[in-house]
Model the fold of this input.
Amino acid sequence: MSNESLMPLVLALDVATATLEQVGGKGASLARMAAAGLPVPPGFHVTTAAYRRFVTQHGLQEQIVAAVANVAVDQPATLEATAQQIAGLFAHELPTVIAEAIRQAYAALGTGDLPVAVRSSATAEDLPELSFAGQQETYLNMRGEAQVLDAVKRCWASLWTARAIGYRARHGIAPQDVSLAVVVQELVPADAAGILFTANPLTGARDQLLINAAWGLGEAIVGGQVTPDTITLDKASGTITEQQISEKDVMTVRTHDGTHEVPVPAERRSQPVLSPAQAAELARVGVQIEDFYGQPMDIEWAIADGRIFILQARPITALPEPSAKPQVAQAAAWELPNPKGRYMRSSVLELLPDPLSPLFATLGLPAWSAASVVLFKSLGTRDIFSDEVLTTINGYGYYNFSFTPAQTAKMVLAMPRMLAAIPRLARSARQRWQQARSTYAATVSRWQTTDLASASVANLLSGARDIIDEAARYYLAVQSGILPAAYGSEALFTLVYDRFLAWPDAPTALTFVLGFDSIPMQAEKSLYDLAQSAREQPELASALMHMSSAQFTQAARAGATDGVWPVFWQRLAEHLARFGHTIYDLDFAKAVPADDPAPVLETLKFFMSGNAPDPHKRQADTEAARAQATQIMLTRLHGLRLQLFRRLLQLAQDFAPLREDALADVGLGWPVLRRMLREIGRRLVASAAIDTPDDVFWLKRDELRAAAIPLDANQQLGNYRALVARRRATWASERALTPPVALPLKGGARFLGIDFSSVMPAHTDQPAGDMLKGIAASPGRVAGPARVIHGPDAFAQMRPGDILVARITTPAWTPLFALAAGIVTDVGGPLSHSSIVAREYHIPAVLGTGVATERLSSGQPIVVDGDAGIVTITRDGENSR
Done:
């Protein structure tokens, strides 16, 4: 009698002796934990013996082997045809003995319609040299015997998908050597779920735990639909040492026929998912599991009604070695590529506040490096900078100023030439900007008129590189011309005006550079006009006022064709066509307004409320004040003072509106670029390599280049799903860190013997306490609740009178300024978008605090002093007195 005939068809979940051969990798791990008394949801295994009996009784093995024999791995059509043929074989009824064994085990769990999760558990999925993860199916919220029995058969059939057949064929695994078990467990009605790492997967620190947490079932985290909270804890005490609370827009919930993604209630989106006590208890369970397995573990967990449940546990792969030297966690996290190097975050990196997506890091950042080197060489710095002037540390972008002694000497000698080039760059600023924009726009236009669906992957990648290269050249033209010319001309005018031209009650210097019609101001007025038009139609206005962001996005994509909606959607489309390329973040993995209109909804509602100031009037009033102030000065000044005033004012006013216009067009190519990259993603989805088109941004340039040939040849690809999931988890861990503005932590801002810390765009060395110091960027003083916004997915949290707290703002953030009473940022200076627009809106702003998004929380009362550059947390009823 064979061992297989002695194997039971069904096993209790907590049978400690269950083997990999019987219950597969996932099942064996769950069996060990359940037997050890860990909080695993109750359930049972449908063993590989049941699968083999089903196959044998219906004579399927010979048919499967024969079908697979006809497969040509390099011909995807044969894989698909074979998969469909085999899938049909599993339509047979379950043998009575198997069906009855499953019914009895299911009935023993509880009531007849108890919701369960039915998960595949392959016998080869834990082999270290192969990655079978994600190749078989899971079915959640199965209710009743019929659904459970059907889900078991569908799991068995998933052993023979085109992707799984191709993968095994490429690795020489014979079809007769594979089998599948199924785990059936009571579905945890999770209030929250996530992933727990029992060692820090970023730094390798074994004395830390890291938790990702989101509302609802855990599928929203795994699928990347939501950025989870990230919590770091001390392993010994279970106390939280650092946490990043994200805006969580969606969650996965149970429905009558499975699961579905729904919007998170507004009041819970910015709330921490876990209390300190829950995090500590979860940490305690995690340490138990680590001790049980004897190695750091990656654990999927859920919480329901206050109880913790463990859904899966596996060893952490690719865990970095911890630092050999005892260091504080922050120092260990920022170990330098070159221990003697200097690294700084400024300039373009102010537009990249988060860790970079893998695709931007390998396709976008090199383009900016190359363009920067060309600029530096034009300033007389040949043979000093390499092509790697930009690099990443812990996922964040940094300028690499790691010079050898010889390079430092050359830089010192080149300084006179660089200083002498500044006037030339200033004189040519407008011309170079316009020329760069024209070239950039032509490249973008060429791809806007290309049929992306018929283009090869190789061609799409080449076109993407062309757009990114032109975007980088455009930005460098702005950085080396428009921005310093605008900053310098305004600073010079202000200095001369305040010291030599103004009198005590004269207009302020700021009055002369406000009220210009820049692109962000035009976008605001366009949105205001759209809101006023909607307000005149009560049915439309009422519907919009009661819509959530998710509903608004869904309705916009559906494009209703009846009633009052068509004209509204058409006008919104026109608004986005004109202004939708402005970026929230330079990383092209992040959506732009053209992709999703939801972030403008709350501003639309505010404009429709009747309580919002008219931006047309605000600009007209500011323009009138500027004209009046100019006339006063022209009347009072004479001779050389009048000539000096005219000349310096003309320079400042020539460049003032160009700052925002120039920055607003940095993302000119991003809408079509994202469509091109997502088209590649769509083809990767069709090849079952990734789950969603947006997963393409979690792959690297070389991986896409390698995939281009088989994709264009209609050949089968490998599975990138597990790789994407790991990279998403790493990104979330990195995002919980606050990147220092200069590295090393001590002395990193010193370059060529000069300490640049006072002019860096952020102050990350803030002392403890209730006060944050930054740059006084827009005058005034205001008190109000902080509203921490990390990106456009959280724009719906903003309410009129809130103080906007963000890492940075860019032109695409301008709609929030209409609602804000004040502005606070981690990064930024007098020339940044936050400063320019805050002054136009006449609201106080303190920028460059370095740690505001980390130290402040939404709803916390604060005072913003835009004259002194100080933000104060108020307590016990304090106000702005």
Observations:
- The two ends are 89 Å apart (CA to CA).
- The mean pLDDT is 86.
- DSSP finds 28 helices and 27 strands in the chain.
- The first helix runs from residue 3 to 6.
